[in-house]
Each structure stands twice: as C-alpha cells, then as structure tokens.
Design a protein that fits this description.
Number of domains: 1
Distance between the termini: 41 Å
Order of helices and strands: HHHHHHHH
Structural class: mainly alpha
Largest sheet: none
Radius of gyration: 18 Å
Helix content: over 70%
Length: 220
Amino acid sequence: MQQGVPISYLWSKDILLSKKMLWLLFITNLLGTVYGYEWYWLQIADTVAEKPLWYVLFVPDSPTASLFFTLSVGYLILDRAKGRGSRSANGILRGFIEAFALITSFKYGIWAVTMIWAGAWLDVPVGWDGWMLTCSHLAMAVEALLYVRWYSYRLTAILLVAGWTLWNDFMDYERGVFPRLPEVLVDNYYANIEAFTIGLSIIGILIALICYGMRRKSQR
C-alpha cells in the first residue's frame, strides 16, 4: 500500500522555499502591510498633530512587523534567484531585518489575536474584520517561526532589535501611542495589557536567542 505524503512535508524546505510560496508570502505580506498602515492612518495623523513628530515611528506596530518580514522574504527570493547555497547581502542590515521580522511578527501576531478575543470576552463585537485580523495575525506569528531556520542574524542584531522592541513598549504605554483598543479593555485592564505586551517582547527576544544558539551549535 502506497504511503501518503507526511504532514511534515508541508513545512519542509521544498515547500517553504519554493518560488511560488516565497512570492505568495511576499505579495500577501506586502498587501497586508499596506492595509495595516491604512488601518493606523487616523492614529498616525492624530499623533503627528498632537505629539512630537518622531513619536509616529512607534505607532504602527503590526504593519511595521509585517514590512520587515516582507523584506526578509525578499532576501530569500534573491537567494533563490542567485542559485543554490548563495545568500544576498549577508551582512548587518540583513541580520537586523531578519531579527526584527522574527521578534516583532511573533509578538504582534500573538498580541493582536489576544486583544481581539479579550475584547470579545467583554462583549465587544468581533465581526468579519476581527476574524480576518485574527487569521492574518496568527499567520504573522506562524510564518516567522517557520522561516527562522533560514535566517542568519547574529547576537548584535538581536540586541539592537531587543532595544527597539522594549523602547517601543515604553513609548506605547508610558507615552500613550499604543494601538487603539476598546475602552472597556483600556479602562479595566491597562496594566495587564502593558505587562502582557512586555512579556511577549521578552518571549520573542528569547526565541531569537534560542534559535541563534541552536544555529551556532549546529555549525560547530
């Protein structure tokens, strides 16, 4: 009796690094990034009007994460175009982009889904857009974890992204530029949301460190 294709094949190198899959990820994440910046547009405009201009860098969290993941996929597409075993622009910039993509995509993917369903628990309607955002943000976290095995970031990149991520948390909750949430969540669970966000930052950083350590060990 002929055996079927094992389920692990779905996240194998043959599938995930195929030309079709890489371009599908690049296009869908790019479109999601554009949609994300549009979703934040009113908050961006209000921040520019009411706060120092540089605060705006810390407003659009999820679309910035998906932008960096899109760039990391772009590097993989260039690698594939150059041929087997080659890497494009294998340096500090690429490492920073990859570490940023991993840490922030995992963090904000989990964060957004949690906030949507915490609101639902408090009787905030989810709607079709809530389901869409749930699926897309779960995908952000999953795709970052699936592709980390082909990242080549180093410790310096992790430290730089860790600094940015934790500073972003400070800006969000001490300077008030966190993503707009239902009032019932903010009024009753602000401190919990802040602690949860910082916790996700730390977990994302630890994941990046663990994957870096595993890669170093495998190269010995």
